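Researcher: Before we compare anything, I want clean individual predictions. No alignment, no superposition, just each chain on its own. First chain goes here; please echo the sequence and then give the structure tokens.
Model: Echoing the first chain and its structure:
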Amino acid sequence: ILDVVNRKYKTTEKMSHPPRLVFVGGITGGKDELATLIMCVCRSQYNFEVYIYGPGEEAIRRLIRDKNIDVKKYTEKIHVIGYIDQREIEDKLIECDFGILIRPNRRSSNAGFPTKLGEYFAAGLPVIANATGDIGLYLKDGYNGFLLANNSEKEIDRVLEQISLLTNNKYAEMGQNARMEAEKAFDYRMYAPALQKFIWSVKADG
């Protein structure tokens, strides 16, 4: 699904201080959940920053209006960038440390597959995600990211604590594993021969 070979990826072996979590995408229709993560980050005893590309500040504030979030902490930790050109996303991803992919547990989430998982992995970013659809076939907890059992506050708090305890060596290993998974599972070259064979077989039958 991606040209992984030619995508930029993170080569630094150290996490940022504080660690940077990144979300890229839209929030309309409730396809992705951000409000609980934002709340958990803002109240956490551990220091994190969240970078959000896609939705604007007004949309994010509407999203969290029912959450009890300290305004000062929100201002310090949550950076809403809004829309940027898709060609700039690769550069922005490699400035961060973990991709965010938290989806509501409903039929549509379990039926589809998020291309963002491949994009984060291709950038060498471990991913924080809950187990909807086939995500668990590619994201292995503690290996190339953190797999949430659900999208609850308790689970997000657990993962934030685990990230805070990561050594640079372990983080570098997770990032390398993420990139390798992208090369193995999400590069179009892996599927081109089979697709070509199928097309030729259909042509021959015709």
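Researcher: Okay. Second chain, same rules.
Model: Second chain and its structure:
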Amino acid sequence: MKKNIALAVVAAALLATGCTRIETGTVGLRVNMSNVVEQQELQPGSWNQTLVGHVLEFPVRSIQVAWNNLTPQTADNSTLKDFDVAMVYDINPTAVSDIWVNQSRSFHSYDDKHGEWYLMHNYMSQLLNSASVKAVRKYNALSVADNRANIEADIKTIVDQMMKEENLDKSITVSQVRVANATPADDIVASANAAVRAQSDLKTKQVEVEIAKQEAIRIQTLNSNSQAIPYMNAMSQMEIAKAVREGKVHTIVIPADFKGMLNVGK
């Protein structure tokens, strides 16, 4: 009896150490003792023995590729100072075996830290680079940042078309493209700022010229009127009288031929 219990414990221990569980968001493939990959995908949540052969696990959800510090050319033949872009894609769980067996190993990347293969990671990275260059080329340097959403949509369209041409559109789905940064070259920014300053200066000068024209018209109109000078003198005297009444004037220069009346306070 005790012997049977001991054997059962040993068997359970062997099963525990000789099994692997496929985690959520991943798909497994069994490699048998002949080092042949079996075609049936191992689904998330399943327990699979590894006493004979071994199991490969592949993440299939939300795999990201990214490029930082790209310098693509724009429509006006300027080179961007910095362009950062990222793309997220998913692998069809039923296509894992076909991709692993039939696609080049150089298309995939291996994560030493987690011990996992990322299917088509290198391949999708190159597609992202190529699509970014094509998408940015449609816009002038100073309009790239304002057209991030359009560029993201263009990149996705280009990548989808490339995958369709390679018959990968049913196996891989791009879920998101995000342009994190798009910075024009320093000389382009400097030129744009100089142009803005020049336009501002031009508008200021145009306003000054218009004011001068209106003033000239006003003076010409007054000079053409015979009553202009008496009118201006009368207006000046009225302003002086107003200032005297308000106590703002304490000294008045009286001309020699003054003939009016003046009331001076204490």
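Researcher: What stands out in the second chain?
Model: The radius of gyration is 42 Å. Additionally, Residues 6-16 have pLDDT under 50 and may be disordered.
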